[in-house]
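Hi F.,

I've been meaning to write this up properly since the lab meeting, where we talked about keeping a consistent format for the predictions we share between groups. The idea is simple: the sequence comes first, exactly as it goes in, then the structure tokens exactly as they come out, then a line or two of notes. No screenshots and no reformatting. I'm using this chain as the first example so we have something concrete to point to.
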Amino acid sequence: MKLDIKTTVADTLTSDLDSWLTEKDGRRTGLLTSIDGSEVMLLLLDTQGGTAELWCAPVPDNSYTSLTLKFPQLHWFERVLWDLFGVVPLQHPRLKPVVIHEEYPQKFYPLRQTEWQDNGHNAVHDEHHFLEVHGAGVWELPVGPIHAGIIEPGHFRFSCLGENIVNLELRLGYVHRGVEKKITEVPWQKAHFVAEAAATDTACANALAHAIAVESLLDLEPPLAVQSLRTIALETERAAMHIADIGGMMTDIGMVGLAATMSRLRGSALNLAQALSGSRFFRAYIVPGGIAAYPTASALLQAQELVVSLKKSLRPVLTMFQENQAAISRMDGIGKLKRSLAAEFGFVGVAARACGVDYDARRHFPHGLYPLKAPPTVLETSGDILACTNVRIRELFASLDLIEELIGTSRFDGNSDRAVTSLPAKLPANKQSCAVVEAFRGELIHLLLTDEQGNIKRYAIKDPSLNNWTMISIMVRDNLIADFPLCNKSLALSYGGNDL
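Output, unedited:
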């Protein structure tokens, strides 16, 4: 199965966007980007129909009327579009860089390929100014970009009244690597190595999205055994990262004994990945056309034993955590977010489902054995850190149950089926394809467009963190400074996935 995608050319993006999004439930904006800076492209997703539509509108004067005031989800996308292409969203409520810092040369737009024209509307990347909060007793706390822990760099500027957080402003972009541009520069047969490295803790999901995008262009459908192993791999990555993030919550609460146990059990999940693919992080495992190799019978038996043992070991640890009153008191009511805000800002993944947003891409878009094997959506309604943690724990066991089922019921015969289908030397010319994958953080999108020679002319990646970084600024307001680490860990966002 592939995601059906059609292209609509419009004079402006605002002409029919309202009606498209409100015509029926289940429609959402997925990605806002450009090919070379001469147009704006908006990817619209129909979750009920499992289809996508790519709207394109020209921007001959490097600007267009911002969509943010009508669709707040796009405010971060429009800032990235300005950073990378120099296309200015006029009347944007707070146009600030996301990726490009003032250390770069002025008028440096790394993905722009057409000539840049100064028409008087174009903003420049001046020295960054944080939003200032004034009033008696208000003080600022700068944190980062270099942190005490071993994490990626990001700057957090807190405005506080006493110990209460009044406002939080983020500054990211410190690990911008030019991933999307690099994919267009390497031979397309090698592009999967770059795509899976977009966010290395999401290597499997990125590799799967890239493989689907390429296979969709080629009208290629891998065999059922490959789809099953891809699904197992994706769920194994989800389980390993959920274990790590739950353990991180335990660390920040102070339950170091349980946290140490979770760290050990994450190793068991990585051993499961090693048994199936030969890589603890599924690197170079999912490739366009299939997978690197089928597992042996002994590897499958080892994987079956590992997943059963992991489920058994996790239950008492997580039960102890969920029933600990001290842990509950540190999470209950903290970082609370309304469902209306989560929906309006287009938040995805565990945090959105903790607010009651019923969206899991596994139930709507084809990837692996989904939507056929998609587990029921795990929902909470309180929208606080406790809800996020409970969603993550329930999803963890759902993933392990599915892995056990697929290993036990699927048949993998490496002698009768090739693990990788032969691919042509060139991709089809002037085509586009898209993949939507539910990574462990939420909705992941890869968009691929080819030129007249069949080369990749534009490759866009939308990591789920791009949707959700705004969430941390909203959820910490009116909470204590001491609650920020818990709020941050409950989302477990990626700096690199945002910066690309």
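Notes:
The first helix runs from residue 17 to 22.
The domain at 4-90 is CATH 3.30.460.80 (Beta Polymerase; domain 2).

If this format works for you, I'll send the rest the same way.

G.
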